[in-house]
Design a protein that fits this description.
188 residues, mainly alpha, 0% strand
C-alpha cells in the first residue's frame, strides 16, 4: 500500500518540522527525478515513482542518523501501513543488495542491524527500487546533478564510495536510459 501524493507531501512536511535540513529538498528532487523518468518508461507509474522518491528518506524525521534513518523510515512506514514505501526506505541505499556496503555509520543496535539485513535479503528488487536508487544517486539538495559528481561528493563526505556500488549505479543509469528510449539526463 502507498499513500496518495497529498498524504506523502504532508508526511514530508511533518518530518521537516521534526528535523529540518537539506535532506528535504534532496527528497523532493529525488521525487521529481523519479516522476520524470518513470513517465518515459513503459509499465511504470509516474505518480507512484514520485511518492516513493518523496518518502525514501522519511526516516530522517527522527533525527540526524546514518543507517538509523533506513531503519526508522522502514519501521515508520510499516507502522502506517505503507508497505511499498517501507520497502523503498529499506532498499534505496543498497543498489548492491548487501547491508555491509552501506556508506556511513552503523548507528543502530545489533538486533536492528540483523532485522534490516534479513529484510533486505528477503526482498526482491523491482524497477521502482532501482529507479529510486538511481535518482537518489543523482539528486542533491540543489537539484539533479551528474551521478559522478554526486557519488564523488558522497565519497568526499564519507571517505569512500565502493567501486561495486559506483558501477551498479552507472549500470542503473544505462538501464533506465534504454528503458526510456533516451538518455535520462535529456529527460531531466
Amino acid at each position: 500500500m502507498l499513500p496518495d501524493r497529498t498524504t506523502a507531501e504532508n508526511l514530508l512536511k511533518d518530518a521537516e518540522q521534526c528535523n529540518p535540513g537539506a535532506w528535504v529538498d534532496h527528497s523532493k528532487n529525488t521525487a521529481q527525478c523519479a516522476e520524470k523518468i518513470a513517465g518515459a518508461c513503459a509499465h511504470m507509474e509516474s505518480e507512484k515513482a514520485y511518492i516513493l522518491g518523496l518518502l525514501h528518506d522519511i526516516g530522517r524525521k527522527f533525527g540526524v542518523k546514518h543507517l538509523g534513518h533506513i531503519y526508522d523510515g522502514y519501521q515508520y512506514m510499516l507502522k502506517l501501513g505503507y508497505d511499498e514505501a517501507a520497502k523503498i526506505c529499506l532498499t534505496h541505499s543498497f543498489s548492491v543488495q548487501n547491508i555491509h556496503d552501506y556508506i556511513g555509520r552503523f548507528d543502530i543496535g545489533d538486533d536492528e542491524i540483523r532485522e534490516l539485513e534479513e529484510a533486505l535479503a528477503a526482498v526482491e528488487y523491482d524497477d521502482y527500487d532501482r529507479l529510486i536508487q538511481l535518482c537518489d544517486s543523482m539528486a542533491g539538495a540543489e537539484g539533479v546533478m551528474a551521478m559522478e559528481d554526486r557519488m564523488s561528493d558522497v565519497a568526499r563526505r564519507y571517505g569512500s564510495y565502493p567501486q561495486e556500488k559506483w558501477d551498479k549505479n552507472m549500470a542503473l543509469k544505462d538501464y533506465f536510459s534504454t528503458k526510456a528510449g533516451k538518455d535520462i539526463y535529456e529527460l531531466l
